[in-house]
Amino acid sequence: MGFSAAVSMGYHIVIESCHRNSLKCMSVNRWKEHYLNFKVSKCSRQPGRISLSRSEFTEFDERTSPNEVRKEIERCYELIHKLGRGVVYLGSSRIGFNHPHYLQALELGREIASLLDSTTWSGAGPGLMDAVTKGAMEAGKPVGGFKIGKEASQWTATNIHPYLPSDSYLTCRFFSARKHGLVDAVVRSCRCERTAVVALPGGIGTLDEVFEILALIQLERIGSELPVPFLLMNYDSFYSKLLEFLDDCEVLGTVSRGEVASLWRVCADNYEALAYLADFYDRPFSYAKEDM
User: Fold this and answer.
1) Looking at the DSSP assignment, which residues form a beta bridge with residue 136?
2) Which residue pairs, CB below 8 angstroms and at least 24 apart, start in 150-157?
3) What distance in Å separates the CA atoms of residue 280 and residue 274, rounded to the nearest whole number?
4) What pLDDT, in 10s, does the model give residues 69-87?
5) Which among 26, 23, 22 is positioned nearest to 34, based on CA atoms?
């Protein structure tokens, strides 16, 4: 069989010539190979269209639709309006429940929820996100989340959280919508709103969120009328190498001296974080460091 074909993202194909009544064709959609078997009749330069099943390209169609993204962002805002703004936690989905950082994050989530009496927000995933969620629930405070179908630590995707009520979280298809939600959850429009961003140890996804929010604060584009505290939890010097790199950036002149330090508070432990937030929001604080 001899043929030549021109293929576009819409799966158009022009068959120059063919001598058999069946054809196996490979197409590429979002870096996946799809093998299609279809019948053709004898033809000469006959334009046609190969239509994949609905399941094959629905996801691509939705991802290219600005209306779908907008609707998901609106659902994020609706959930925030329902549960209230509060403290957003960023952190690893890979750290297990027996790790010291998990236990520290669980304690921090519980104590901050009690101290600020506000909603706890996270990516509603496993790891340290699970720790702060359980901590806030132990404190009896509201919890919300913007889940993604598949976290870095998971082999399979799931839209269902194992224990949170379905009306307390949203499973996002779009990372852009999820990020809109995480940012809006810390916006302060009045002094009665006690919010914060808390960056726990994490990997690529955590660093992506950390620096995106940090840049919004730096450029005064976060949309908050009042300042939002940003805490970097440097458990066991986890972020010390990153801080050294940022110091080198100051020496090279890619950031101004003292600029990064003015945007966040680096905390070595939970006591330091709680003391800082208590002072920031003028809340009563009676913990002793040895209790942390």
Assistant:
1) none
2) 151/93, 151/123, 151/125, 151/126, 151/127, 152/93, 152/94, 152/203, 152/204, 152/205, 153/93, 153/94, 153/125, 153/126, 153/127, 154/93, 154/125, 154/126
3) 10
4) 999 999 999 999 999 999 9
5) 26
Q: How many CB atoms lie within 10 A of CB 111?
A: 22
Q: pTM score, two decimals?
A: 0.78
Is residue 58 a contact partner of residue 143, using CB atoms and an 8 Å limit?
Answer: no
Q: Worst-scoring range by mean pLDDT, 32-36, 171-175, 176-180?
A: 32-36
Q: Say how far apart CA 40 and CA 24 lie, in whole Å.
A: 11
DSSP state of 33: E
Taking CA atoms, 118 is separated from 141, 186, 244, in Å, by: 7, 11, 33
User: Per residue in 29-44, pLDDT tens?
Assistant: 444 444 444 444 444 4
* Degrees, nearest 5: CA angle 63-68-72: 110
- In 10 A of CB 60, how many CB atoms? 13
Q: Which two tokens stand for residue 248?
A: 């080198």
Distance CA 59, CA 87 (A): 32
**Which tokens is 233 given?**
């939890």
For residues 50 and 9, the answer to whether their CB atoms sit within 8 Å is: no
Tell me the residue type at 91. Answer: G
Tokens of 273: 């974080």
DSSP output for 178-203? HHHHHHHTT--SSTT---EEEE-S--
CA distance 44 to 199: 62
Q: How far apart are CA 224 and CA 160, in angstroms?
A: 31
- Residue with token string 């976060």: 222
